[in-house]
Amino acid sequence: MRVTEIIADLHVTDLEAAKGFYTDYLGLTAEEFNLGWVARYTSPRSGINIQLMTRDATAPEDPVISVRVDDIDAAYAQAQERGYEIVHPLTTEEWGVTRFFVRAPDGNILNVVQHRD
């Protein structure tokens, strides 16, 4: 398994209210996507991005980062083999990603995700 991208998941109470700060002040582009509870914004110059999130739609807890991997099944198996707590099981979500949440030993929750094209 190889990590291909890490995106910060910033928690906000209102996506629309927060949007202006990240697009106008920081100069991030308009939304790459918006599911109503999570939206991603990207820098047109560097490609760096962040996600704003009110509350995860299907998981019991919210992640602090999203980690995109090239082999979600291997990532899930490795997390289980190492005895890490799986907070949200391996799931193919209706918006087209396969993901699971794992709790790091420090307590942070990571959304490990693969976009299956």
Strand order in space, largest sheet? 2-3-4-1-5-8-7-6
**How large a portion of the residues is in β-strands, by DSSP E?**
35-45%
How many strands in all? 8
CATH topology type: 2,3-Dihydroxybiphenyl 1,2-Dioxygenase, domain 1
Largest sheet: 8 strands, mixed
End-to-end separation in angstroms reads 17 Å
| Count of structural domains | 1
Structural class: alpha+beta
Q: What is the radius of gyration computed over CA atoms, rounded to a whole number of angstroms?
A: 14 Å
Order of helices and strands: EHEEEEHEEE
CATH architecture assignment = Roll
Task: Return the average pLDDT rounded to an integer.
Answer: 93
Regions with little confidence, pLDDT below 50 for 5+ residues: none
CATH superfamily: 2,3-Dihydroxybiphenyl 1,2-Dioxygenase, domain 1
How many H/I helical runs? Answer: 2
Please give the CATH class.
Answer: Alpha Beta
Overall body shape: globular
What percent of the residues sit in helical stretches (DSSP H or I)?
10-25%
Structure report:
By secondary structure, the chain is α+β, with helices and mostly antiparallel strands. It has an 8-stranded mixed β-sheet with strand order 2-3-4-1-5-8-7-6. Helices cover 18% and strands 41% of the residues. The mean pLDDT is 93. The protein contains 2 helices and 8 strands. The relative contact order is 0.20. The protein has one domain: Roll (2,3-Dihydroxybiphenyl 1,2-Dioxygenase, domain 1), CATH 3.10.180. The protein has helices at 15-25, 72-81; strands spanning 3-11, 33-34, 38-42, 49-53, 65-69, 85-92, 97-103, 109-115.
